[in-house]
Fold these 4 entries.
Entry 1:
Amino acid sequence: MQLLIFSILLPFLTAALIPLIRRRIGNFNIGWLVLFIPVLLFGFFASQIPMVSSRETLLSSIEWIPSLGINFTAYLDGLSLIMALLITGVGSLVVLYSIYYLSPTDSFPHFYAYLLLFMGAMLGVVLSDNLMVLYVFWELTSMSSFLLIAFWYHRKNSRYGAQKSLLITVFGGFAMFAGFLMLYAMTGTLSIQETAAVMGQLTEHALFYPAMFLILLGAFTKSAQFPFHIWLPDAMEAPTPVSAYLHSATMVKAGMYLVARFTPIFGGTSAWFWTITIVGLITLFWGAFCAIRQTDLKALLAYSTISQLGLIMSLLGMGSAALRYGNTEAGALYGLAIFAALFHLVNHSTFKGALFMVVGIIDHQVGTRDIRRLGGLMALLPVTFTFAVIGSFSMAGLPLLNGFLSKEMFFTASLNAASMPGLFSTSWGWLIPVIAWLASVLTFIYAMIIVFRTFLGNRDSKAVEKRPVEPPIGMLISPAILSILIVGLFFAPNLLGDHLLKPALEQLLPGISGASPDSIYAWHGVNTELLMTIGIVLIGSVLFITFDRWKGIFKIQPAGWTFNALYNYALASSENAASFVTRSYMTGRLHQYFFYILLFFIVSTGGTLLLSDALSISFVQDAPVSIYELMLVLVMIITAISILFTRSRLSAILMNGVLGYSISIFFVLFRAPDLALTQLVIETVTTALFLLCFNYLPEWKREPLPKRKKARNAVLAIAGGLVITLTGLSVNSADLFETISSYFQNSYELAGGQNIVNSILGDFRALDTMLEGLVLFIAGIGVYTLIRLKLKKEAGTDGD
Amino acid sequence: MESLIIILVGVLSTVAFYLLLSRNIVRVILGTAILSHAAHLMILAMGGLKIGSAPLLGEEAETYVDALPQALILTAIVISFAVTAFILVLAYRAYQELGTDDLEEMRGTDNE
């Protein structure tokens, strides 16, 4: 069905249309027009749910570069559908929200064009089955993210954040590209599905682990995993709808998608299991730890996003072990982690999207996002407050909200991973649930900070003079829908689970039955998971209340010992190194440049000549030499060499003339009358021109060069001449190709000309001749301008 | 004959390279002029020499020499003339503005 491919292209087409219609319909209407696109696409993808829930997939392919095996193949399965629904669903809400969020002075056409570009690219990433196509879309998401972060490009921080995110994600994308090429080298196919089918036999291949780590590097940079997380907080310089959409709900999930998509390929190895689990857990903890100390609400949400992404990542890592155990009880227990990952992926998009929109409203209505200046907004913004409570409490994992369900599942998965006997358990396994629990306590604390520090307490009327009011209704619709989803998913999780999560899981872990729970329950009785949650609430509350007493812990990390400092240092030093290298050879000295060119020519051409064994000299094919030709050659050689030694520039010019006229004699001897005539005319004019210019140029001085340099130049020049001679002689003694010139001997029939040379110039290659005329014309303009320029300047000085 | 011409080309190129490596702008221009002479001879030699008559169908000869290199050279002669003329005027203007024909002394300090 080509509709699937069209669904990827539709946002691109609309984005291209926006500049054309912007003048007609005005800023406000562009948003409404754009809104139509994601809603339409959401409807399309929603209509595919029955197909996917009956365990079918959709494949649609058109040829792109068939000779390289690159086809535009779109593939829709459970995982792709979940992502596509998130992209278009959250996309619709964000577009609606942004119509009211942007100020009239912002450029709406640019904003929506970038946003649509991103939407199309993101759909391309999650729907492509071809690795190369996926890579192209992957980089396009980085590009559009760059454009959106730098949307307010007059701000220095925006530009810094945009550059940082681009450098880090493109670095990862490049690594991923290399990984894809290695995969291709191993399997000979670019299709992900086909790769997964043959990969089981290739775990011993030398490229298996390099490919795995390179692809993981792409996923980790995109999903802001430790230590590449540093770009995400700086990306918060983007307008808030962008942060909600790209840097929370969708683009950063591309890394998750990639890991999930490649789980059938690499999963089941311990390297995959441990790398992803450990990186995920570190990110989970570090993100939550950093989030607590933020004073900017958006920065807090950024670190919390990092932390939640780490959570999903670690779940994907734990779940990959299912592929090692196959269809056993252990396989099913591990597989639950992937189910939890997919579930939390959806839940995170709902509550984090709602929270970002809440922060956007606060910023928009109050004028600040600084927690220290906020407080007591509950009475003034009751609706916004409700959304904030729902989003935060869901993030903290409290009951009656969807975050509770996936958080409980996360604890189950981490306990499973720790207690499981066998290949992947080590004596350190108990650390997994401990870190998970500690990070969740921190999560609870920052969720409370959002609610209590912003909405409760006393309003600081000195810090914020404007008395905030609820925003226009249009800004409230989107967070309202997300809040309803957060509550709704708690009460009806199986609607999502049965129709999307289970099919996706079964396609990712084929042949492992029982990995997904029969249905998702809120109440499992009193078990370890519930006790962990109760512990989080109790300890978290105590720590939140006593926050001021222990926040000195953040001073343990010495100032300057951050990954940001490392990034800045690396960037600055690589810029310095690059300019040092450039300065070392871009000296502005023509003779040095020519020195490099000549050296390169000698080494490359001469080297090839020697190494490829092409050197051969034979005089068999040569035409006979008569005595006067030999004399002419000798005259030319002597003339040429004496140019080097003459002190007078006049004699040098005349000797050059001798060379030119001798060549025209050769042209006569070699049966080239046209050339001889042209050469005579041109040589005469050139010599005259030289003499004319010399009237204005100074006498020659001796070259002020040290002897050593002169010797070096001489050696180089002789070597260059030698390479040319040897190459020429070798070419002359071999006869590798049929001549194509016999074709032109039909010039009378084909072009109506008796003179073959003229026919070539005037007919066969007439376009070349026309361009040659153009070159002459440009040179003429150049000469004319150079002379006129002087007159103007003189006129100017005269006027003074 | 071809080999002889190729050796001549080698000598001309050596001279041209040496001139191009020097600091005096007129010597550099002379170098480019000589290098194009060398290139023209090289192209002609590659097509084979003195076999057949001039490429004019009116001659009604059995064979004609290769016309294609001649067409290429004709274009090249004209273009090298244009380039030589342009750099000559450039050198003349540079000398007028800067008072030197030494490339080393012409180096500006801008953009470095």
Entry 2:
Amino acid sequence: MATESIDYASPETKSKVETKVFPRPGQHVTGIVDWLTTIDHKKIGLLYGLTALFFLLLGGIEALLIRSQLWSHNMEILTNRQYNQMFTMHGTTMVFLVIMPLSAAFFNFIMPLQIGARDVAFPRMNTLSLWCFFAGGITLNLSWFFTGGAPAIGWFGYAPLTDTRFAEVMGDMGPDFWVFSLQILGIASLLASFNFITTIINMRAPGMTMMRLPVFTWMTLIVSFLIILAFPAITIALAELMFDRTYGTNFFDFLEGGKPHLWQHLFWIFGHPEVYILILPAMGIVSEIIPVFSRKPLFGYGLIIFSGAIIGFMGFAVWSHHMFTTGMGVVATSAFSILTMLIAIPTGIKIFNWIGTMWGGRIRFDTPMLFALGFITMFMIGGFTGIMHSSVPIDAQHQDSYFVVAHFHYVLIGGALFGLFAGFYFWLPKMSGRLMNEKLGKLVFTLMFIGFNVTFFPMHYLGMIGQPRRTHSYNEGHGFEAWNQIATIGAFVLGIGIAIGIYQFVSSFFNKKLKPAGKNPWDARTIEWTLSSPVKEYNFARTPIIKSRDQAWENNYGPKEKHAQQEALGDHGVHMPDHSWCPLVTALGLFVMVIGLLFRQTIEFAELFIATPYEIAIAGGSLFVLGIVMWALEGPGGYHLFPKETEE
Amino acid sequence: MRRLLALFTRATIATILFTTLFGCSRVDHKQSALDPKGLVSQNQYDVFMLSVWITIFLFCAVGGCLLYVLWKYRAKSKEEAMEIPPQSHGNSKIEASLILISALILVILAIPTLQGVVLMNRVPDANDEETLKKLNLDRSQIEGAITVNVTGKRFFWVFEYPQFGIVTANELVFPANKAVRINLRTEDVIHSFWVPKLAGKMDLMPGQENFMWFIADQEKILSGKPTTEAMPSVFDGKMRQTVFAKQKFSDEFEPVGGLFYGQCAEFCGNSHAYMSFRALAQTDQDFDSWVKRFQNSQNPNLQPSAYNPEEMYNQGAIVTFADKSLGEQAQREYRSTKKIAKAEAPNLSEKSWIKAHSDDYELGKQLFSSLQCVQCHAVNRTGIGAKGPNLTLYGLRTSLAAGWMRNDEKSLSTWLRNSNEVKFGNLMWNGEGVDDTHPLRQLENDDEKVNQLIAYLLGQI
């Protein structure tokens, strides 16, 4: 079914080609250049996913080292500083380099398909966001190799521990790497979010009203808004921290009148919406999967979306529940306590509605459904312990104990990661064109489900009998040993499960023995399933005209008047944009500039370089500006494809 | 039916296993929040258990519903999996009632939560009889409250008793029958004060003073046993003896009554895990004796002075005489064996004066200065050396290195020889100005000096 594509230039496009200042790589680039210059949302999504899975392995190894160190009392697998670096890097990696980009991978790949668009609104900006994420990940992990090693400040980086005054290694650069990598990652997230919002609002296919949007796309929209509202807070906090560290300002330096409380407020007013940034995409995925495998539409579609929006909105009003023990006083703690309890209601609604969806359905237990059900049960436990923490007297005992560790891993692994794995098992056939082995998938689920619960359930108990978190060692006589050993064994089982899963995802792109997926292997309901698998580079040969909410389902089973129609192809064909080097150059410039700025702070390391850090920063900055200028001047370019009438 | 039966058996076995597993594991661990021994922690425990029952109920209800749905509506065959069930889109009546029910359940938790917030932040008013009665407190327990200013340092604790003018470190002695007000301060980064059995944690924020309070439940601590066993006195060393005699270090389930374990709960740097402490409950009398003893040993006016022939000395009085055997200008403490009249015994004689301390103690005392220990540690609070933990009455302490080790000769010897091996990154080994040339670092193979230092330190009683 090869597409017959013809190069075509109508009189209008010809004149545009002439205004090109720089030639852009055209449609015929292949191999590595294709991937480096791609602006196709599907390839960007795959790169996001692959990189995030790599970081998942890396963060997982860090987690296993942490668990090994806690095997018994006074273990010496890691020194205390190494351990502190491990949990800092584990936390930062898992939040910013795994769960967020995995969600972004699905946003990129699936969302434009679900709204019937041919790409996102700003394809090159999308690429820039990918390479910024890449640069941020590299920057963070480069810290291992320089003075002081990786940051040992926790993923929350509480002031004043981050202050140079309290550095435990002379000239510790870890926190600087942390600050700058988070800034770059922030740019990546912001660019992507603006892009997704514009795309969803402007590029929906005709007939795709907001209340016909698939729930996953709705969650993309909500999460994107959360990102653009939450990230400025941490950007400001990080900039202030950078100023404190580099120029000796006193935002957080209490000896000079600064306020360590300020950092916590800024961090958590970002950090709590961040929790929903991590969990809402998974909720969106699960809301797609459950109707498909129950063969029923989502129960209470409107309410699920409304509760998602309410969760996002209220997420900005509960940040101080991370600070119940910082001495905010009776009134503030009570207010945040009640608000936090309220947020349980919209979360509960989602669970009720998922069960309502299954009610009266014909439930199939394929791997995506198993992960989705795992999500519901595990997330429920995480939610319940969350309600406990919303109560201040309970939180006074739980805060910073292993109970909290158990709680947020139930939300972030049992919730977010299980949801994302469900998404992989659900949508990978659409991405790779091949069905994955069900038996292997079920093995992965079993290993992960058992491993996860064996690891984290005992931690509730460990927290209650007094094991504080972020401690690299514990003394004998506390009775922590047995449960920690169970947890460590569980962690390895979980690790094996995840590793097999990642192998299965990656190999499904190369293993030719796997069965072809066909257009709609699950008999799913949304319009991405009307496309061929893998999806053609132009997505929709002809833009669909949407008539109902579950369009693919209605096309198959609905009445005639609800079937989608297609717009005529026209003599323009499908306009495809050219590849571009500019996003990569811009991101590279940013990366080099950041490295220069980083080393500016420690003079001793200047000798390592051929140039001084100062010059490197300027060179990087110039490259950055050059990238943007070239971007502006290279012109739109593009080519046209003419899929046959029969092609979807 | 047979499958159902098999499933049922399996579920039963799982439940039995689960309950035995948890039944076997006791909850009175050293830092267990499940074994509250104070008013505040009891309240927190009660609210917690309420939330546990609420959530177990919800989990069973929602989870049971989920299981029912999964079982009832599972596709039993390939054909059935292809059937199209009625495409219903929702039911607003069900949804509204579920929202209402969840809101109601939250109210059940919200009320005790708000009461708990007030309780943990505010010591009840001594004049508010109604509240005191409700909390089962006596007026005197509030009126006689003691105040402790807690200062967190990396990585140990300073406990200052402003009412009594004394400062100690790492072991908080308090009267079991009185409220204890805690003011929390820090001189470096954020720490968190947590004694799970007495109260939940509160952070020590730089540039801000936080407050918490607790009151132990003396009856619960004693639980019918005599005071000497359940709450041995600190001031005469009984607590230390009992702890050492009764407790192997690894013994987790036989804590000595009145001994509570606490730990820093906010990440504060390299050795955060080692920043623990202990809280020792005492009867009112024992507490007073301890304070008295502490005040006396911190009082520079009560330090022994050189023998003065113009003075009269009671039996047991301590004076100093020059002792060349300890060094050129060394003074040594002697105790009178009888009542000594003016100018009666100006010279050392076995009959009237005996050495107050062993030779090792005296030499250790000199070492304490010459090895620069005194730079950071105050004994007899002279004003200098407050960088490290105060070592007054050190010989009465049960633990060493901020609660990390048992305070006996053996661990003290390990600690003095190479503290970095015990507690990597500690400031005694790594602090400012301490390098390989520092005299402290020469102790590793010097048995003699180590023993002398131990004699001096454990002689602080």
Entry 3:
Amino acid sequence: MEPRNCDCDDQKPEIVTGPIHRRDFFKLGVGGALSLALASRMTSSLFADDKKPAKGNEKYDKPPAQVTGKAKSVILLWMDGGPSQMDTWDPKSGINGGSLKRIKTKIEGCEFTEPMAPLAEVSDKLAVIRSMTSREGNHQRARYYLHTGYPPTGTLKHPSVGSVTALKKQNPDLDLPHFVSVNNPSFGAGFLGVSYGPFVVQDPSRPPDNVAYAAGIDAERFDRRMKLLDKVDGAFAASRGGLMTEGKDAIYEKSLKLMRSPLLKAFDISEEGESVKKAYGIDDGVGIGSKNGGAAKQGQRGDKFGAGALMARRLVEVGVPFVECTLGGWDTHQDNFGRVAGLAGSLAPAYAALIKDLEDRKLLDSTLVLCMGEFGRTPRINPNDGRDHFPGCFSVAMAGGGVKGGQMIGATADDGMTVAKSPWTVPDLIATICTAMGIDHTEWFQTPVGRPIQISNKGKLIEGLLA
Amino acid sequence: MKRTTLFALSSATALAAFIALSWPQTSTAEPKKPAANVPKAKKGSPETEVASQLDALVAAEWATQKLDASDLSDDSEFLRRATLDITGQIPTADDARAFLMNNDPDKRRKKIDELLESPLYAEHWAFTWSQRLLSGSKLLQVAGDRGGAYKQWFRESFASNKPYNKFVHEIVSAEGDSDSNGATAWLVSLQDAGEAGMAASASRNFLGVQIQCAQCHDSKVSDWKQPDFWGMAAFFVRTKVRRIIDPETKMPKGAFEIIDMPRGEVAIPETDPPKVVDPRFLEEKPIPRAGGTPRSKEFKNPKNPERTFIGGPADGVERRQDFAKWLTADDNKWFGKNAANWYWGHFLGAGFVEPLDDLDITNPPSNPAALDYLTADFKANGYDLKRMIRTICNTKAYQLSSKPSATNAKDDRYYSHGKLEHLTPDQTFYSLMAVTGLENSLARGMDRDRVEMLKARFLAGFVFLFGNDEGETGDAFNGTIPQALVYMNNPQIQAGLKVGPSTTLGKILQKYEAVDARLDEMYLSVLGRFPTDTEKKYFTSVINKYQNSKLIYEDVYWALVNSSEFQFNH
């Protein structure tokens, strides 16, 4: 079992040559006291480029393993609140089964519930992992865990897999952010640094915040402002100089490029035809973004999710490597079946449309589309007709990006209480996402305090998943 | 303990021998002399004297490191830095003008005193400490509609200049519920993290000891062993944070209560049979359990192998109270030093020890004598935080210009030049409020509570957008595109940068007619200084070229707000 709350390195000290981090230095166990004198200097020089591991250390200098993933982008459909596996991907008969009808899929021996019907239709593209297991049953902790592969420690912030992807798939020719999160702030880059954090789109029905010129400003006037800014900044930079002012200039330049990028229209779903919108479950735009559109809460949520999924496709189309899109409301302690039916009614058409749409555009092979939440829900139904938190068993679905579709991986027991076959952990899931993207998940990062952290928290590739 | 051997090895010969091996990165690193020349701290000695002593210690290090110090900051640089650091926002145009025109040679010292007495001091430090201690999700819950008590508690602690040892003692020993005792906030914020999280947070924040690695295994980077960590966790294992349930509706009320049970032992996770750990203070012997050993049948909990709590016999010992006492006692060797290092680092841009929260023996200070002296003065004077700030801000080291000299540009440890730092989220927010006059616009036709609520919501947005993740150190710019976009285009801020009836710029244009008077006031409002002759000449010509239109003023004002000089604390 993986250790709880631990991400420390348990590797043996290594023989190191050249400059190293002070932490590693002490591991050597040689010249203990001598290091006292050196530590401060080393710390300061090494913190200067804290994103990059120290050179000269075998662990960090090891070239990344050749990972032959096919995917160029990931779309993460995040089911916030903890979706009920037994009422979606892994239905059961018997006392724990619940009231949703079960339907057949194209995968032999694999049933979904009825509200998932659109997904049953594309199930030949889907791999359903039914044997995910974890121990984190608290929302916030589990959200962190599923996004980073590490349980929260309180002392170190780990990068989310979206941030890792943004870092490892940097494309200087792409003016757009590399990690976009729709409907949810998601999780940041932690010790990798804020520049790899998510670009958050609060409302997919309108352009991202602060990208458009303010009222009364046009390109010409903006240029004038930038010229005046150059003038103000010139003297300050001349006297202070250095990385800080240069870095600020670079960020302004990038921001301006984003504001003026023709790719920005990838954020604009209004360019899509009505039939496409409809397929994603976007009704008529009434609900989304408008506070008094009159649509029920559930409907608004579904519209926003469909709009986010559609935006995700548009972003992937222009090369954004990681897009997360959230559908919230899965914390169904009460009225589980009614609510899950409604939520699945939002999820299923959008997810299915996304798979078909990507396939039509020949993008499915290069886009991993996965669907997960922070944990599963209890097989036992509580007195409020609800289900409670249950990290012991939950399901994750994947399509595209080199995933072998039309299969089930692992299984839960008949009563849903335990994993019956091939349990897979959250670090395994992170390792698999990285591998699909051609990222070496065994690579080590160095945190600012010099602790080595492996991307996937020592996960293993989920067997049989990738073709 | 092994650390003593580490010291024993620290002989001059060993050092010399090692240096002779010519480590490539260390040609400039000198062995640290033991802190021999630490001046004696005295109760009630004037802060300016303490500051001079600190300066002498810092200057000695410049000589050793062959660094020339930068010039003293000019008045506008000093005023802006001190106002941001002490009160969390930039000086107003009136403040700046008055300070710059003042010929009193003692005006800096007086200004520091004045800033410390400003109500904004308590506001800023309440925010700074709650950000530091209450990170994570629970903060939002506690800080939501029910956050009044904790905000109030922090604010009052700083407004009354509560001694730091008392402040921390109240936090760690807090009892009762979160609605009536705001000091419970730290424990509440650690509800999910449990005893392990409480121990790790207390150790890191209040001792500067990074013991958390020993949670899972004996640390390989320091001497801490698993029993050290769990021995500290044993002081918190009896403390539970629960949501208060409304007796009528049976629903959670939103407030939390702290409950201390008379029993409870901690076991190292996944040990079989569970290894029960006695409580122990760092580097001290384990404290025998008053009630004896838990019965072995309580050990087994096969359903939950990682469970660390074991019932055990009730002995009624209030362990958390014992811990709070030990933590804040005068003879705790880390407690005062950690605070001194943190405050110094906060004001100077780098602590004597970096990272700020890692006072481990393996991570020595850059200037042990200065750190020891500041610590001793802090303790000798009743852990007086305002005194510590007054001392630090009166040092020459704090008041140096951020313009580097020919030799010191790369120095980030010896305080040879002023710091260049990003504004923190609250500094950004309040400074933008000031230059836009947004608060005035909000205040029109809105009641005070609603203005406060909107402000809080807006501030939360800034914390989200401008909050750096932990461990962001170094001299690189850590800004992001979304941050730059806020400055460039955010509709609310842009509205505030226009010429309007209640905007700052609108008021400037109303009050002054002449172009150069307007430019003076714009520069004072945004940058806290007068424009240079070159700047004045250039912008006057631009403004004239565009026929003195309000649009061109808006453009110039926008450029000032978007400048590095505004966005950095320098």
Entry 4:
Amino acid sequence: MHELSLAQSLLDQLIDLAKEHHAVRINRVSVTLGPFSGVVRDSFEFGFNALKQSLEIARGAELELETPDPVYLCLDCGKVSVIPFSLPSDRLELAMTSHYPKKCPWCCLNRLSPKGGTELILNQVEME
Amino acid sequence: MCDTCGCQLHDHHHHDAKVVEVNRSLLEANQKQAQSNRGHIEQMGALAINLISSPGSGKTTLLERTIEALKDTVRIGVIEGDIETERDADRIRAKGVPAVQLTTGGACHLDAPMVHGGLHVLEHFAKGGGYDLIFIENVGNLVCPATFDLGEHRRVVLLSTPEGSDKPAKYPATFRSADLVLLTKTDLLPYFDFSVEEAVKEAQMLKPGLQILSLSATTGEGFEQWIEYLKNMLKK
């Protein structure tokens, strides 16, 4: 539930940026949520869209979220791989083909260590 | 009048949309305050530890025993984070150590601005005496506290045996951010299906080289390693 406080700090940053650039309206906001940032995309989006309603300047702001795929380092063979998270819709298939736990695509062992991915970045703001 | 900006010009004021590249962390405000907290703590002559775990894994009991072991040689101060009540701060005060209770009133984690307030109160309690070691006991939660730097020098994550050895794998962000993991309540190992080997393996998979100690605050088993860790940290 800390997504709400992060959405609030994003709005605080937006207000400051709008002041700095003498803007009266924010149209679009682009944010990157790292795959290991511990932030849930849907909750963050929900929080932002709920909180922006109380701010004239941000009410029409469209939130664009980038969520890069997770990168892992294999502790057995040392290779780095991008292994996307499974979507809820994949679950049935996963259950049938047993792709879980995640395995290194190079050596097929499963000692995968997350690499980076903790970033929470405000990339770009379009305002007028 | 222009509907958009309220200006009095007859001709519509022309509003140009512009794109501003920001590339700054969403946590910037918290990070700045955390950095300032770290400076404040060092100015007080101390180092700080942020204690994170689920509710009931033994953070306050760990602190009680740690205070008993160190209070004659180390000046300790404690900031307690909870959603409600002064109970934890009262337990610490009963050990003769200054404690500030931060009640978040619902928030699931402490952030740097809250700790900033707590540090000033703690400083006031010291009456100019200063501290060597400040513990910040976070709100019991294995999820949200991971994201917020409080200005600590070390982050210690507790995992108690009744919780199960699968917790590092299930809560990776928190265990990955730890400087030290304490496996607590080891006196209960005979009664729970907890594999120390699995917990260690999975935590070190998330963060290779992560230091992990096992202890029981009840029997004192393994406690001396923790005390040694603290003494070494303070020496540096």
